[in-house]
Amino acid sequence: MDEFIRIEHLNQRFDLSEPWLARMIYRRPKKFLDAVDDVSFGIERGKTYALVGESGSGKSTIARMAVGLLTPTGGRVLIDGQDLHDGSLSVAEQRRIRQRLQMVFQSPYASLNPRWRVGSILAEPLRVFRLVDGPQAEQARVHELLEQVGLSASDARRFPHEFSGGQRQRISIARALASKPDFIVCDEPTSALDVSVQAQVLNLLKQLQRDLGLTYLFITHDLAVVRVMAHRIGVLKSGKLVEEQATEKLIESPQSDYTRMLIRSAPRIHRAAS
Ligand SMILES: Nc1ncnc2c1ncn2[C@@H]1O[C@H](COP(=O)(O)OP(=O)(O)OP(=O)(O)O)[C@@H](O)[C@H]1O
Ligand SMILES: [Mg+2]
Description:
Elements: E1 3-15, H1 20-26, E2 32-44, E3 48-52, H2 59-66, E4 74-79, E5 82-83, H3 91-99, E6 101-104, H4 108-111, H5 118-128, H6 134-148, H7 165-178, E7 183-187, H8 195-212, E8 215-219, H9 223-229, E9 232-237, E10 240-246, H10 247-252, H11 257-264, H12 267-273
Parallel strand pairs: 3-8, 3-9, 6-7, 7-8
Antiparallel strand pairs: 1-2, 1-4, 4-5, 9-10
Bound molecules: adenosine-5'-triphosphate and magnesium ion.
């Protein structure tokens, strides 16, 4: 099995204690939240792993640790066997590894700078990671990225607000692709979109996976979306992985009550299955 990423006994404990002085005066104990509690799974290269679970179950927290935005309080994230967080990587190696890990978020409104033209938004990662030589090569790459996500080269001159929600999500995907990643975390990438637009964006993600060999960690609470996207599913509840299985198997014969409940509450899937 050729795994791109392996997550081992991952933990994230947030300190929710009141400030020290208040705790002393009111004699309150420290308070912790185990937002991610001993989670382990791997994702095969070129495949999609979906994390599902109710709001607050720890999905985004795992995502942030998987791309190196948040340091785990326990456990490891291995990228091609290399520990992302153990401090053994040089600055240059860290930079190289970060470049390979990208994220696409739920709200393209919040994640695209409204004052920048699309061309500048896409050029920024090219400059940060020094991926192009000179303005001409930069422009050519920006145009190529736009076409790769089904937009046109002339869109580089426009601002994010001139696009529809689905098109804006395409811009976010193009920006994630700019640094030539191997791995993209999609955190609820289509949950703000209409169902028809949702399908188009999901198809684009699948096509890019085929063309570029991308590995995805796909986060959603919509099991109907998971069914079309994911090869494997992990079910998360209160920071713990309660069940993990190949997609069809998990949906056809869920092992835990919690998974059964999630499937029952996904209307489109439920109808298709009954
Ligand atoms: N920086 C933080 N400090 C303290 N608590 C946090 C922090 N980030 C997240 N949490 C808490 O950790 C838990 C898991 O949050 P997380 O955002 O990972 O959930 P989620 O599964 O992504 O939920 P949603 O579906 O609503 O996006 C929640 O209880 C949240 O309030
Ligand atoms: Mg989240």
